[in-house]
Design brief:
Blueprint: E1 12-14, H1 27-35, E2 40-47, E3 53-55, H2 76-79, H3 104-109, E4 113-118, H4 126-143, E5 152-155, H5 158-167, E6 173-177, H6 182-191, E7 194-199, H7 205-213, E8 218-221, H8 226-234, E9 239-242
Parallel strand pairs: 1-2, 1-9, 2-4, 4-5, 5-6, 6-7, 7-8, 8-9
Antiparallel strand pairs: 2-3
Helix pairs in contact: 4-5
This protein binds SN-glycerol-3-phosphate (G3P) and magnesium ion (MG).
């Protein structure tokens, strides 16, 4: 099955919402991305200790909230009361960590394409990974609005993606990688309806062509330089994750 989701017409995917303009991974950040004309956003998800899907990047609370400690050790009700905005700018004081289940209607109402990145702290076990996969499966199977496009679900933990695909045969998945190897090309081509989401500094033109030859959409993180974004988009990548860019000059998309 080929990849079904529409690429962003400007080639841009707001990273963690649109992290230069608003606190990352927050509803106000998602709204900011929408207001600046983005069609796609990415955000990160991990589990609280009561197995809620919390939208936050780091495994601990120190950098982006007024709390501290590990996300998976804290109850979602405690996490939801933290301030996740004032570290960024005091005008965002009172912004909270979103809960993907509870905030789903608000997120879907923005009418954006969504990339949910599943995060697993290194020290977590198989039980954590299985629970996280099951929570995502339940969310998409039972709570996703049929009028919204399916999200792209990505992770560096490829077995989680394969578990999700087993349960949801139509689900688009994204293999995150630091380096675009022959292995990831082979796996993405084999499972189908899959992207490769690759770290920008490690990506060569030849690797872009290799992905295109296999009809695998390529998403590139994180690109904050306008000329680099334009070049990648012109070379036909599906999209680039960006904290700051809101426009490209790219006129003719050559998306695989
Ligand atoms: O999903 C692309 C990108 O977000 C991966 O890196 O650390 O920003 O989640 P990170
Ligand atoms: Mg991410």
């Amino acid at each position: 099955m080929t990849f079904q989701l529409n690429p962003p017409s400007n080639g841009l995917i707001g990273h963690r919402g649109l992290a230069h303009f608003a606190p990352e991974n927050t509803l106000i950040g998602f709204q900011m991305a929408k207001s600046k004309g983005l069609e796609w956003i990415e955000f990160d998800v991990q589990l609280s200790n009561d197995n809620e899907l919390m939208i936050i990047h780091d495994h601990n609370l120190n950098r982006t909230t007024n709390g501290n400690g590990l996300i998976y050790e804290q109850h979602s009700e405690i996490l939801s009361k933290l301030d996740a905005g004032s570290w960024f700018n005091e005008k965002f004081t009172g912004t909270t960590i979103p809960n993907l289940d509870k905030d789903l209607a608000k997120i879907l109402s923005l009418d954006l394409n969504l990339n949910i990145e599943i995060k697993c702290p290194k020290e977590t076990d198989q039980n954590y990974k299985n629970t996280l996969a099951d929570k995502i499966i339940t969310l998409i199977k039972h709570k996703w609005s049929p009028s919204s496009p399916l999200p792209l679900v990505s992770s560096f933990e490829w077995p989680i993606l394969l578990k999700i695909r087993d349960a949801l045969p139509e689900q688009p998945i994204g293999f995150l990688c630091e380096i675009l190897t022959a292995d990831v090309l082979r796996i993405a081509a084999q499972v189908g309806n899959a992207t490769i989401n690759c770290h920008y500094p490690n990506l060569s033109e030849q690797q872009i062509y290799q992905a295109q030859a296999l009809d695998i959409p390529l998403l590139v993180f994180t690109v904050n330089q306008q000329d680099a974004a334009n070049k990648l988009i012109d070379s036909g990548v599906f999209g680039v994750f960006t904290d700051i860019l809101t426009d490209t000059y790219s006129s003719v998309r050559k998306v695989v």
